[in-house]
């Protein structure tokens, strides 16, 4: 809850560049001393949000409050915040000491005070013996420590970090994650951190804010985000997952992969279509026929360092990923089970494509700014209607010829026996597709919908 411990409160924040909206109605609060990570794929808006907090951009709509004061119009240098960038932005002509002391010298802080504070902050980042070193002679990790020291020396109330470890090699990145976490504990100030690295977010954060296409998908602790994803995007983006179509028969009873399972979820109703998430480490092998819930055949087994990753074909024709410390040979028949606690049930965001539409002529309907051929019997020209198309009835083409629309694949979800794709339409909007064909993220596609696959119904009024 918001309260006296809230240091930053973001209300209704939106950001547009021309006609392109990159942030949509962001509402977020950050507690004093919290380590908050903004997590999401490239282009999701996380860096834009950080730059708005820092003051490098002005919001199109909404407010940013720091300790209850609106700072939206305050320039960056007057905000009690400092930013650490992916590219360290150190002054190449200054040594380590002068890089760190630069801000204090601008403020005309006495020399003895500067020296005291520089030594203290260099000790904090494990760079005590490097005061006289040329910054160009330092490793990437050392340069990043200097950049962090320079940001900390001004004693900001909030430290903003924009993918600060992205340029480091894997081992150094892991080491710096531990050091950053320790720094945060020692300093007790608020950190707001941007990354696209899920493991990094899970390691560092008190709170994770998952973003996609300028919208916050979920806010929660690392454990909540991993174990209780609210939608398929979060489940797929955070760690490995088997995400499957399911049906909730009743409380604590769900069906997926053509088998029924006990679960712990309630309140979905009866015979309701749902999405089911099972983490690959939560599918267990057994040699006890009484414990076996379903059988499968191992079709691949790969050593991943700390576990083996196996893909299996179930007895009902679904493909699942399993992670286990013990390998099972390719071709072997195995017995499997899943505990009720390890089945996560989620509401489906949508069951089919549905659009507000208008009948534009006999056999013609307009939606997604495009006119489609369609069966319009029972409707009049000008009627406002709803157009529904089942996911599997949308055809994707690798060319524009004969296509009704074009777009780019922006999200791919494997559902065990087919792929569920999100396609961003060139003129705006999205369409969702179920297909057995293999497409890559970013692929340009043509989209074709046959007249008989568009189902029209009366548009619901605001009172219905």
Protein architecture, described:
It is a single chain. The chain is of the alpha+beta class and 464 residues long. The protein folds into 3 domains: 227 residues, P-loop containing nucleotide triphosphate hydrolases (Rossmann fold, 3-Layer(aba) Sandwich), CATH 3.40.50.300; 108 residues, no CATH class; 106 residues, Nucleic acid-binding proteins (OB fold (Dihydrolipoamide Acetyltransferase, E2P)), CATH 2.40.50. Helix content is 18%, strand content 39%. The protein has 8 helices and 30 strands. The chain has a 6-stranded mixed β-sheet, with helices on both faces. A 5-stranded antiparallel β-sheet has the order 13-12-11-14-20. α2 crosses α3, α2 runs parallel beside α4 and α3 packs across α4. It is globular, with a radius of gyration of 27 Å. The chain starts with 5 loop residues before the first strand and ends in a 6-residue tail after the last strand. The relative contact order is 0.09. The mean pLDDT is 92.
């Amino acid at each position: 809850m918001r309260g006296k411990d809230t240091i930053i409160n973001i209300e209704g924040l939106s950001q547009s560049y021309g006609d392109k909206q990159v942030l949509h109605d962001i509402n977020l609060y950050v507690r004093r001393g919290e380590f908050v990570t903004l997590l999401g794929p490239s282009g999701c808006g996380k860096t834009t949000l950080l730059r708005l907090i820092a003051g490098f951009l002005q919001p199109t709509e909404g407010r940013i409050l720091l300790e209850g004061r609106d700072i939206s119009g305050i320039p960056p240098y007057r905000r009690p915040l400092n930013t650490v960038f992916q590219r360290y932005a150190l002054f190449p002509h200054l040594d380590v000491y002068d890089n760190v002391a630069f801000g204090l010298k601008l403020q005309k802080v006495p020399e003895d005070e500067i020296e005291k504070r520089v030594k203290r902050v260099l000790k904090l980042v494990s760079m005590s013996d490097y005061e006289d070193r040329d910054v160009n002679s330092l490793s990437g990790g050392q340069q990043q420590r200097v950049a962090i020291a320079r940001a900390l020396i001004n004693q900001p109330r909030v430290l903003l970090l924009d993918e600060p470890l992205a340029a480091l090699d894997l081992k150094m990145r892991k080491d710096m994650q531990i050091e950053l976490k320790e720094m945060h504990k020692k300093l007790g100030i608020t950190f707001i951190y941007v990354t696209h690295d899920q493991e990094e977010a899970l390691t560092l954060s008190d709170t994770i804010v998952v973003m996609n296409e300028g919208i916050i998908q979920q806010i929660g602790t690392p454990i909540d985000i991993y174990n209780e994803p609210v939608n398929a995007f979060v489940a797929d983006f955070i760690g490995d997952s088997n995400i499957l179509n399911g049906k909730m028969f009743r409380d604590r009873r769900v069906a997926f992969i053509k088998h029924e399972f006990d679960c712990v979820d309630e309140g979905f109703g009866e015979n309701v279509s749902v999405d089911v998430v099972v983490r690959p480490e939560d599918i267990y092998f057994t040699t006890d026929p009484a414990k076996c819930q379903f059988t499968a055949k191992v079709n691949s087994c790969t050593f991943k360092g700390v576990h083996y990753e196996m893909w299996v074909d179930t007895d009902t024709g679904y493909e699942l990923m399993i992670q286990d410390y013990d390998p099972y040979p390719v071709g072997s028949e195995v017995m499997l089970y899943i505990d009720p606690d390890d089945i996560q049930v989620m509401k489906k965001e949508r069951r089919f494509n549905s659009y507000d539409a208008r009948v534009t002529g006999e056999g013609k309907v307009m939606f997604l700014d495009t006119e489609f051929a369609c069966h319009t019997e029972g409707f009049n020209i000008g009627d406002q209607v709803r157009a529904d198309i089942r996911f599997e009835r949308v055809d994707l083409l690798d060319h524009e010829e004969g296509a009704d629309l074009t777009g780019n694949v922006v999200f791919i979800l494997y559902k065990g026996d087919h792929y569920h794709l999100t396609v961003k339409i060139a003129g705006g909007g999205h369409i969702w597709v179920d297909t057995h064909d293999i497409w890559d993220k970013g692929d340009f596609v043509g989209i074709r919908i046959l007249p008989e696959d568009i189902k029209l119904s009366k548009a619901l009024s605001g009172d219905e």
